[in-house]
Structures are given as structure tokens and as C-alpha cells.
Design brief:
Elements (H helix, E strand, L loop, with lengths): L1 E5 L4 H9 L8 H9 L3 E7 L7 E10 L2 E9 L8 H15 L4 E7 L3 H9 L3 E12 L2 E11 L6
Bound molecules: coenzyme A (COA).
The site of coenzyme A (COA) has 19 residues, from strand 4, helix 3 and helix 4.
């Protein structure tokens, strides 16, 4: 597996991958605007460089000494092979190297795969946001997680 940066020109591919993982997919235009925004970047996973097909993506945004993961998605057929963990750790490494102290994210309490993955990467719960997600009319709380890039694993 190779992990590499992806620019706004790959927004259409990233949008297709995002749609395989989320009920409310982000359009290519939304992803292009996000990646093009201040402090934001995308990393993708694939088998070749440049990748013929992308098996995973992570979008993150830095704001001074903090950063947040905006989204993480792995193609259904590529899951449980370390792609999500590889992308999360590569993102953390990149931010640590740039002097960022803390990396945050939100995950639904109903998303055990994501919660387990982030715990495996060293994230710890930092709080909860009540009724943060709307799953077709059903409200779901979010867990806010934080990775200390100085002392946390890896
Ligand atoms: C969550 C997601 C990104 C995980 O990606 P992945 O590539 O399958 O994860 P990895 O293979 O790197 O898993 C690393 C570890 O996380 C944990 N984990 C991952 N998926 C899991 C699952 N379905 N159930 C339990 N633990 C899981 C395990 O500890 C795993 O290690 P192991 O396989 O050695 O047991 C993927 O399931 C996905 O795209 N889901 C839909 C989108 C989503 O929910 N994104 C996160 C939004 S916050």
C-alpha cells in the first residue's frame, strides 16, 4: 500500500469513494473547496504511484497548533487490511512534523469500526456532542476524540 497526497484535481474520485462509505456523500465541488481551503489537505491510499484506483482517503485541516480529521473512508472491499490505520497514522505523522500538538475528530457512538480504529491509533475520548448526527431522523451522539501528537502513540 502506498500513501500519497491528493490535490483538488482528484476531487471527483474522492467524492465517489466518499459516497461508498457515507449516507450523505460530499460532492466533488465540496471536496475540491475543502482541499483548496486554508490548512487543509488530503492523503489517499492506493497500490501504485500515482494510484490507478484509490482504496482509502483522509481529509484533515490544520488551524495553528491543532488539527482535525474531516473525513476518513476506506472502500468496502479494502477494509480490515490496515488502510484506515495507515492513513490515520500518516496524517498524524505529517501534522506532528509540522509542529501541530493535537489532532481531533468526531465519530458516531454507533460506529464501532471507527471508534476501534481511532483507539488503536492512540486517540482518547475528549468529550461528547449530543445529537450531533442525524441518521434519517434518528439523532446520534458523537464522541470527540483527541490524539496528543507529542506524547500519544505512535
Ligand atoms: C472506519 C474505517 C475507516 C476503518 O478502515 P479499515 O481500513 O477497515 O481499518 P483498518 O483495517 O486499518 O483497522 C485497524 C484497526 O481498527 C479496528 N477496526 C477497524 N474496523 C473494525 C471493525 N469493523 N470492527 C472492529 N474493529 C475494527 C481494529 O482494531 C483494526 O485492527 P485489526 O484489523 O488488526 O483488528 C472503515 O470501516 C470505513 O471506511 N467505514 C465507513 C466510513 C467511516 O465510518 N469513517 C469514519 C468516520 S468517523
Amino acid at each position: 500500500m502506498r500513501i500519497m497526497p491528493a490535490g483538488p484535481e482528484r476531487a471527483a474520485e474522492l467524492s465517489r469513494l466518499h459516497a461508498l462509505s457515507f449516507d450523505k456523500p460530499w460532492s466533488a465541488a465540496e471536496i475540491e473547496a475543502l482541499i483548496g481551503g486554508a490548512g487543509a489537505f488530503a492523503l489517499v491510499a492506493g497500490e501504485s504511484s500515482p494510484p490507478d484506483s484509490i482504496t482509502g482517503m483522509i481529509l484533515a485541516r490544520r488551524l495553528f497548533e491543532e488539527a482535525e480529521i474531516l473525513t476518513l473512508a476506506v472502500a468496502p472491499q479494502a477494509r480490515r487490511q490496515g488502510v484506515g490505520q495507515g492513513l490515520t497514522l500518516a496524517c498524524a505523522d505529517l501534522l506532528r512534523g509540522a509542529g501541530v500538538q493535537s489532532l481531533f475528530l468526531e465519530a458516531g457512538v454507533d460506529n464501532p469500526a471507527a471508534l476501534a480504529l481511532y483507539q488503536a491509533c492512540g486517540f482518547v475520548e475528549a468529550g461528547r456532542r449530543r445529537d450531533y448526527y442525524d441518521r434519517g431522523g434518528r439523532k446520534v451522539d458523537a464522541v470527540v476524540m483527541r490524539l496528543d501528537l507529542n506524547t500519544g502513540r505512535p
